Amino acid sequence: MQTREDIFEILREALVELFELEPERVSLQANLYQDLEIDSIDAVDLIDHIKRKTGKKIAAEEFKAVRTVNDVVEAVYRLVNAAA
Fold first, then answer.
1. Which phi and psi angles does 23 have, rounded to 5°?
2. Sequence ranges of the domains in the chain
3. Which of 28, 37, 58, 83 could form a disulfide with 70 if both were Cys (CB 3.0 to 4.6 A apart)?
């Protein structure tokens, strides 16, 4: 899981699987809270899912700053490539 495209595909699959979203609703520009209706409990589930997939945890403070799917992709990208 190195490229942003790879991360986006894994994130899209997670959002579809965890929150029963239609894949076409999940775009890089989609707002997690407004467009995808993710709430704070869902966000915790998503952070946990990312941790299981990557072996690394996104800090809660960093996740509070994300608004769009692309923000999550960038946060995960920085996380997985910081250790590389």
1. -55, -35
2. 4-82
3. 28
28-37: pLDDT as tens digits: 999 999 999 9
Write out pLDDT tens, residues 7-54: 999 999 999 999 999 999 999 999 999 999 999 899 889 989 988 988
Domain topology for 4-82: 1.10.1200
Residue 18, Cβ density class (10 Å: 0-12 exposed, 13-18 middle, ≥19 buried): middle
Location of structure tokens 């709430």: 39
Q: Given the structure tokens 């609703």, which residue do they identify?
A: 25
CA angle 71/51/35 to nearest 5° reads 35
- Distance CA(68)–CA(61), nearest Å, equals 15
